[in-house]
């Protein structure tokens, strides 16, 4: 069965690759394509080095890793680090913060590009539409550092523009960035400002593929603007919404590491600490390698479980799913 | 057909709402530019100024005269050029290989690459690999660990899939080997895709921030984003002892706000310059950007 593809393109080699000489067939195929492998080699080495070798490093989650003894000789402790983590109050704090940030993202950040693309689709003037599109895509290319800078500029308590406005209006200044009650919402607002516009591209592309005759037929049948949105435009992007929702659900544990890392400060550490920042702090900064690897492994496993679950549910409800 | 009043109302509201969104996006950028050009005396008056009466380049002149900032600029420039070229080489080679259907072990290889998208071992094991390779405190630690990624390979392979085998065969019959085929046929054909991927890689490298925080202690090797972060978050504490005294001295003469915003503008400028070109390749980019490695 391996030889089928090969035969299709290079029939000359057919004689070599009969069932009897399968071994030789593999070898001659490899030899034939040696240049192809040379092209792919750097990439293969990359994936081995940076995506697969790290898997073996996961062993230290079950050890008391000591830099002097190395990975192979360090003491084996089984699930001790996991037990320590789950019985730690930090765990519930991290879980709460992660879930809260993800839930807010799901509620506000996720539907926003869908609404925005539906609205953009209704704009008759194509120049106006293009101008707005070009503007809202821009922030996607800004780094989180720049987003953080712009946020300070607008919202900081001492010099932020919004607070200066409040002062002019005779109102009290608000510490948007240092108030733990509004911190999660501030993160959501940041994400929306940065990525909502960009998120519309994929929906607008799908909407553009809808046969205009459908819309015309609906108009003849007396459907209004909103009925057409509901019965024609939305079904056209339903699959994409579903796929993105699956991905979103699968990444509940990922809460925008750089963003949180940049925006956190002493006043809000209680509500800003998430799994990634915790792993970074306890691992790289404090040197608890085994413990933080265990935390990271827990996060990854839950992430995979979530994405498989969401995919399964989507298929169950008659949608396509990601894989 | 006569339009209903509610239809008109919707259209007006829609246009108004979208204008507001556009304004909310542009305003912080505009205000940043204004502040960066503002004259110190005007800034110290403490009034809200949306259009300064006097524009000055002082902050920029100062910023670009400091060693720290120039070092950071050159590091980021290096990442965006050398990193992008290497990334393109590695990604396109692997994607092309995987797109050839006659290849042995193609399916298992594809599966192994897809798996890396789904499951990532986490921060610490990756840090260990970088450390063991002796890349800590080297600019290469910002390039090599992020050379390519599952999504990039998948997307670029999708592009190569559309190049038929027969084209290659024809060239081979004419006496070209695979490498020759690659350079003479595949590469020219894939130039538009390469430009698109290159732009997105370049933006990614220019925005490199966290890997530098993790892997690099030597402040002369910090990319722009790290320097900018230090300037932004806490100008006094972050700058002391990090070789940024020079910048702090300047901050005494000038409102630190002006200096910060000038730094933001300089950091953003290259992105704004390539933005019109990026725009042409959005369809591919939307997928590339959807998952960041």
UniProtKB/TrEMBL annotation, chain A:
Residues 95-310 form the ABC transmembrane type-1 domain. Belongs to the binding-protein-dependent transport system permease family. This is ABC transporter permease subunit. It is a multi-pass membrane protein. Coiled coil: none annotated. It comes from the Bacteria. One of its GO terms (cellular component) is plasma membrane. SUPFAM superfamilies: MetI-like. GO terms for biological process: transmembrane transport. InterPro entries: MetI-like, MetI-like_sf.
